[in-house]
Amino acid sequence: MADAVIVVALLLTAASATAAVATRDPARQALVLAVLGLLLGVVFTVLRAPDVGLSQLAVGSALTPLLIMLSVRKVRRRGKEGDK
Questions:
Q1: Which DSSP symbol is given to 27?
Q2: Which of 35, 32, 38, 9 is nearest to 19 (CA)?
Q3: What is the pTM of this model?
Q4: Can you spell out the DSSP letters for 43-83?
Q5: What pLDDT score was predicted for residue 81?
């Protein structure tokens, strides 16, 4: 049973990583990276590393996508100001 959970978690992680690479829009890419961080946190928890899983949840699914979204917003705002 535990092996099946690990295989499913790894397959979902691989699929979300592929989706993150294939996505072209930076805003959508940040959302896919948040899902990837969540899935990696699940993988670490299933592999009995809950401390690493919690760190991954905090950094990979919350902080990194937030910083990417704020950066994209600032770049787009500067682009609109430069057009005027």
A1: H
A2: 32
A3: 0.85
A4: HHHHTT-HHHHHHHHHIIIIIHHHHHHHHHHHHHHHHHHHH
A5: 76
